[in-house]
Amino acid sequence: MKKTYYTENAPKPVGPYSQAIAVKGLLFISGQIPIDPKTGEIVKGDFKERVRRVLNNIKAIVEAAGISLDHVVKVTVYLRDISRVNEVNEVYKEYFKHEPPARVVVEVSNLPKNADVEIEAIAYLKD
């Protein structure tokens, strides 16, 4: 059986998908772009703040499932400009300090709402 997770502390999906789905002990978190859940708008200004917003959105979703970022085992980062990976890394290590998850970074030509970063994740639920 699968279970859908939703929290008001992360943005509403911008399409026909769930924020996260749990199945067989794994939580699959949909790609998050830097939308402020309070305004429904993309965060303006500093790129690192947009990355923080994305990671805070993911954090809110995993917490809604009763776990923490420590349970994240795989992350995929989509960037419109791969040269910004060092900026992503600076923020990323604030959230994943010990034993960071496996990760891939991919450059893409565009993202929903013309965002410059999107991150999806997979986490395991409590044993």
Please provide a written account of the structure.
The chain is an alpha+beta fold and 127 residues long. The chain contains two helices and six strands, in the order E-E-E-H-E-H-E-E. Strands 1-2-3-6-4-5 form a six-stranded mixed sheet, with helices on one face. Helix 2 links the parallel strand 4 and strand 5 (102-107). Helix 1 packs parallel to helix 2. The longest helix has 18 residues, at 47-64. The chain is globular, with a radius of gyration of 14 Å. The chain starts with a strand and ends with a strand.
Question: Nutshell version of this structure?
Answer:
This protein has 127 residues and is α+β, with helices and mostly antiparallel strands. 23% of the residues lie in helices and 29% in strands.
| Strand ordering within the main sheet | 1-2-3-6-4-5
Strand content: 25-35%
Biggest beta sheet summary: 6 strands, mixed
**What shape does the CA trace take?**
globular
Mean pLDDT: 96
Highlighted features:
127 residues; alpha+beta; 6-stranded mixed β-sheet; 2 helices; 29% strand; globular
Topology:
Blueprint (H helix, E strand, L loop, with lengths): L1 E4 L14 E4 L2 E7 L14 H18 L7 E8 L5 H11 L6 E6 L9 E8 L3
Parallel strand pairs: 4-5
Antiparallel strand pairs: 1-2, 2-3, 3-6, 4-6
